[in-house]
Structure formats: C-alpha cells, structure tokens
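Deliverable D5.2: sample structural annotation.
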Amino acid sequence: MSEHTVDAKRLLCPMPVIRTQNKAEELAAGDILTVICTDPGATNDIPAWCRINGHKVLDILTVDNEITITIEVGGLG
C-alpha cells in the first residue's frame, strides 16, 4: 500500500473527478489517494464516482474552503 495526493484546488467540475480518475488508474488496489480540492460539488461527485468504480471513501474533511477526500483504491482502479 502506498499513499498519493491529487491537488485539484481551484478546479471546477468535472476536473476534480477527472484528476482523481486519472491518478487512480495509475494505482494498485489498496493504495490510499487523498484529493485536495475547493469545489464543494466534489463532496458529492467524487463519492458517486467511487461507488461506480469500486473505490471506498474513507474520509471527507472540510476546513474553511478546502476539502480533503481520502479514498482507498479498489480493484477496478
């Protein structure tokens, strides 16, 4: 297992999801991917993308305007 980060700050939909998808495709099942973004829609969009693609959302944390979404990459990643 390894940990990776995607910086999607100041990007609007659909870019946070696209950046997350592109990075997840490079990773192995069980890897941890942390997505840092500022688009409030990502709190719905990224978990929906995870459900469809077999990944697991471990945590969503919002501090001020910065959202951190932690994902465990699934077997379909």
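Annotation notes: The helical segments are 15-24, 42-53. Residues 3-66 form a domain with the Translation Initiation Factor IF3 fold (CATH 3.30.110.40).
The annotation will be released with the project's public dataset once the embargo ends.
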